Amino acid sequence: MVFEDWYTISQVPQTETPPSQIPKDQVDRFSLNGYAALQTMYFNDNRETADHPGNWDNITCLMKLSKTDLLALSPHKEAESIYNAMDNFPLDGMRGLVVGSTSQPWLEVMVLQHGARNVVTIQRNKFNIQEEFRNRISAIFPVYLANNWQKFVRRLDFAASFSSIQHTGLGRYGDPIDPIGDLREMQKIKCMLKKGGILFLGVPFGTDAIHFNAQRYYGPIRLAMLFQGFEWVATYSADSEKRFDLDTLRLHSGSLFKSTHYTVVLRKL
Q: What domain of life (predicted)?
């Protein structure tokens, strides 16, 4: 069971400072036996010392923000791609999940603006949600989810994640080193979605590679692994409200270790 496996890995003691190199005995697993390029780009964003999330007690004001002003809260210039995707896949009355939100609840507010009834967000930090919205936004810790997964399995209509999955398992945020951390996270999401449930997923697309411990880049090999159990329905960029076809030429249009965040809409099979 993916939740039990994740919990076991999460209990391995971690160093206070994230590692700067992949453990030698795990290099082949991280690099897909040499297929994915490896390079160092180091960050120490351990959440134990990170700033506490803000504006969770001010959801009313955030709900009134325009598209432009809401996206300004995101640290990602390409986050407009997930907004464009939601414009084309309404969430009216749905219950969903946000994975890996930032210090500002921009993605949680976005799903509510697009009609979601309520949303659960998975966070490592404690924060105070505005009382008037506690029936629409709730927060759980990853360990709580792992120990109480039965409450969530096949219960959710949608999930949303932007620029988060690619970091999982690299240790940058104090998380355990795990060569398949991103794949494990995707399987957890799949377990929580109902059959036919929708996942809005934004990750860096390019040639398969890893900047350790910064992030992964998703090319054809890792994408196929990431999307296991899902149907790829549509792809959106920050440049247009219309979907587009992501072909090989566009996927590899940048140089190695260069990427573009697109949002894909996936449907659980």
A: Eukaryota
Q: Are 225 and 179 in contact (CB under 8 A)?
A: no
Across the beta sheet with 215-217, what order do the strands follow? Answer: 37-41, 209-213, 215-217
Tell me the C-alpha distance between 268 and 165, whole Å.
Answer: 17
Which CATH superfamily groups domain 2-13+52-241+253-268?
Answer: Vaccinia Virus protein VP39 (3.40.50.150)
| Residue 37 tokens, joined | 């390029």
Helix axes 106-113, 80-88, angle to 10 degrees: 20
Any idea where the domains of the chain sit in the sequence? 2-13+52-241+253-268
